[in-house]
Amino acid sequence: MDWAAISLSVRLSAWTTLLLLVLGLPIAWWLASSRWRWKFLVEAVVSLPLVLPPTVLGFYLLLLLGPRGSVGRALESLTGHTLPFSFGGLLVASVLYSLPFAVQPFTAALAGVDRRLIEASWCLGVSRFQTFLRVVLPLSATGILSGMVLTFAHTLGEFGVVLMVGGNLEGRTRTASISIYDSVQALDYDSASRTALLLLVFSFVVLALTYGLQRRVWAPWPTRS
Amino acid sequence: MKAIVKGSLLVGVLLILGAGLFAGPRPISGSEKKRRVTIAAASDLKFALDELVNGFRAENPGAEVQVTYGSSGNFLAQISNGAPFDVFLSADVAYPRKLVEQGLVQDDVFLYAVGRIVLWVPKGSSLAVEQLGMKTLVEPAAKRIAIANPQHAPYGRAAESAMKSQGVYDAVKDKLVLGENIAQTAQFVESGNADVGIIALALALAPVMKDKGQYWEVPLDAYPRMEQGGAILKRAQDVELAKRFRDYLIGPQGKALLERYGFFLPKE
User: Fold this and answer.
1) Which chain B residues touch A182 with a CB distance below 8 Å?
2) How far is CA B135 from CA B68, B127, B172, B218, in A?
3) Of residues A72, A152, A167, nearest to B83 (C-beta)
4) What is the CATH number for B135?
């Protein structure tokens, strides 16, 4: 089993989840509360990665962030590096690719909070930010948690985008799913099946956890009433 | 109760997340930095180069050699877009020559081998590839024929022109399945998903495939000579080590090893 690739995948997923928590919550909050006429366009853009082939996203990122792309040139003059074929590049790609997996559950969770409770908090003189922290967040914790779990799992299994912008560099951009692809091509089925099994078990646990969290009744020992 | 379960789950997830942020190999700090050469290699080299790298490591203790295998055309695109490889070993010398035009290459390109292609069928196949030769492809039992993608894999182009020059292309073109590179093509037929494949002789001779099937070599005059060439890239971090690797590859040890793996070497 390729532990370097697995730990790289875990690190990538953790950073993606963290970034999407920070970036996704404001977007979700705006989507949940805005009444702007053209909001549906923003919703469509956020959900694009759900239906967009990873190769399309990867292709655009490679052109945009590469040494001949506008963003790539600006970054190169600032930092001396370009993003493709580096961990930073994978992170940017993963954040974009997993955006709907974070924002959609976040939005559903935030929209489910009773508006009257929020307004009551405001009327009692609590600031908007404090209301968000002390009323909205605790009431939507389950949805936010499942958004984070989904983001983590989705990034862990990412393949197409990573292949396009990563370049398959050992220890730097060779993630678990790419390592499986490599092992299969090298006819090393043992190594491929060990890593594949790990990902399969992990994905099952994650989904079980997500659906478990969404259960309304959560008793350790179900009783008949 | 629910709040406790939820709370502890949240704490658990955050803990795992926090640990994950710092998982994985840390970048090596300045003083203990190892010498490293990163190689993008055509996937026909897969098994030969693994062995060659072991030999190189034994002669250069402390040097780290990282190899990524793939199709030469994809590497060309990636290197043009700034992929951090030090050495590019292409299955077709035309690709590194394009990098020379882009001004990305140190010195000049070097030739290291000539690629040869074979028709390969898995053990137990009803196709008698050694007797039938190119005619194997038109047999009804050859329902799927694996070749590498001719668009970006030199071995795919060689396979295509061999089929054309032998006059079977039109009869078989609907039966072709395309591998992303020559190693994937070999995997398609090794796993029995394709009935016959046109793959690199080097892969047919590799230990993992040797006992798993039979092959028939396509005559060298049936397709344009596959000059395999490579280049050291200007962006190489450790030029001295990269050059030492190139010299090992084209030197006597590299030559002998490549010859054993069926890379016909130009006799000058």
Assistant:
1) 69
2) 35, 10, 10, 11
3) A167
4) 3.40.190.10
pLDDT tens, position by position, A155-205: 998 998 998 888 788 888 899 999 999 898 888 899 999 999 999 998 898
What ipTM, to 2 d.p.? 0.74
pLDDT at A47: 94
Question: Out of B21, B23, B181, whose CB is closest to A18?
Answer: B21
Supply the pTM of this predicted model: 0.81
Mutate to test the interface with B, among A7, A168, A187 (most CBs of B within 10 A): A187
Kindly report the nearest CA distance between residue B108 and chain A, in angstroms. 23
> Is residue B128 domain-resident?
yes
Which 8-state DSSP code applies to residue B10? H
Q: Which of B22, B23, B187 lies closest to A184 in CB terms? A: B187
Q: Which residue of A has its CA nearest to B22?
A: A11
**What is the interface size between A and B, counted as CB pairs within 8 Å?**
104
Q: Over B192-256, what HEC string results?
A: CCCCEEEEEHHHHCCHHHHCCEEEEECCHHHCCCEEEEEEEECCCCCHHHHHHHHHHHHCHHHHH
Q: What is the mean pLDDT of each run of 10 residues along chain A (225 residues)?
A: 88 95 95 92 94 90 84 85 86 95 95 92 92 91 90 92 85 90 89 93 87 67 57
Amino acid at A153: A
CB spacing of A168 vs B70 below 8 angstroms: yes
Domain count, chain B: 2
Assigned domain for B229 exists: yes
Q: Please check whether residue B133 lies inside any domain of the structure.
A: yes
Predicted pLDDT at B31 = 42
